[in-house]
Write a structure and sequence with these properties.
It contains 11 helices and no strands. With about 325 residues, the protein is mainly alpha-helical. Helix 2 (about 30-60) runs antiparallel to helix 3 (about 65-90), helix 2 (about 30-60) runs antiparallel to helix 7 and helix 9 (about 160-180) packs across helix 10 (about 190-205).
């Protein structure tokens, strides 16, 4: 059996999935990217969950619609629970963090779904439970403010959050006006959720045709809803494209800057090497000069020695 410290054979290295994931994470920084995408998903779920809960405050929906909203709320809170546990795991003192962020606990408790599972029906639309839903909406919004700053900065920088707010406001106000105008005249508009369904279907360009306006003002509301949907779709496309291009341009500039710094470091090192070579060349030239001087000194010494010998020979002859 292979010990943990031993590496896999070459032919099994391809199937070493954890090691391959670690290498991909090191190269592409996958963990931070996945976390960023997950926080974007949580932000979208919070927006829709708060929107649906707000609708239960202003509308008297049928029990079936309330059950559907309660189920969606439960699914959204499952994702928020995971995000909350991520946040707790990143803290040094988890209990202190939980005590200070108590509103996050309210945001991740699906009261309607708990009542639906326990009693069989969602929380009734009484004043007390509507206030409870408003408290949860505020808690959800506070929860969303602590999502990764890059997600929120993207929404604020592109002004997409304002476009989304106007889009949702048109749905709410349009459905209220459509219900007040069509109720009693249109046999297909019996409850507020019928009017809400018409506005959502119209603004998403689905157009099932099960509910159509009978009054002139109702048709005008439908036209306003269509134009608003077209403008919002154009806004989303333009802002998202612009933001992506800006991000790509920033990444390219960062890579260019890093490349320039690397090239500058290489040039600096080459200059240092060139200076050293020049110093070595200077030393080599000086060494050659010293060798020439030594050769000359040896020649002079030989001449002096010869002269000395000639002088001594003359002395002996005398």
């Amino acid at each position: 059996m292979m010990k943990p410290t031993q590496t896999l054979p070459d032919w099994l290295e391809f199937f070493n999935i954890p090691a391959r994931i670690r290498r991909l994470n090191a190269v592409f920084n996958l963990s931070s990217r996945i976390r960023y995408l997950y926080e974007v998903l949580c932000f979208i779920l919070i927006v829709f969950d708060a929107f649906f809960l707000f609708l239960t405050v202003i509308y008297n929906f049928r029990p079936g619609v309330l059950q559907g909203i309660a189920t969606f709320d439960a699914v959204a809170t499952l994702f928020l629970w995971v995000e909350f546990l991520f946040r707790v795991s990143e803290q040094d003192d988890a209990w202190r963090f939980i005590a200070h962020q108590w509103s996050d606990i309210l945001a991740i408790i699906p009261f309607d779904y708990i009542a639906l599972v326990s009693v069989g029906i969602a929380l009734p639309l009484t004043l007390a439970f509507k206030l409870l839903r408003l408290v949860r909406i505020v808690a959800l919004l506070r929860f969303s403010r602590r999502i990764e700053k890059e997600v929120l900065s993207f929404a604020e920088r592109t002004r997409l959050i304002y476009g989304l707010a106007i889009f949702l406001l048109v749905i709410i106000v349009g459905s209220l006006l459509f219900f007040s105008l069509e109720h009693g005249v249109n046999p297909n508009v019996q409850t507020p959720d019928d009017a809400l369904w018409y506005m959502i279907v119209t603004m998403t360009s689905v157009g099932y045709g099960d509910i159509v306006p009978y009054t002139g003002l109702g048709r005008i509301i439908g036209v306003i809803a269509m134009i608003s949907a077209i403008l919002f779709a154009s806004l989303v496309t333009a802002t998202t494209t612009s933001a992506l291009l800006e991000k790509f341009r920033a990444e390219r500039e960062e890579q260019t800057k890093a490349s320039q710094e690397t090239i500058g470091n290489v040039i600096t090192q080459l200059d240092a090497i060139e200076n050293r070579l020049e110093k070595l060349s200077t030393l080599e030239n000086r060494t050659e000069e010293i060798k020439a001087d030594l050769t000359e000194l040896k020649a002079v010494r030989a001449e002096v020695q010869n002269l000395k010998e000639s002088v001594e020979g003359r002395h002996r002859e005398d």
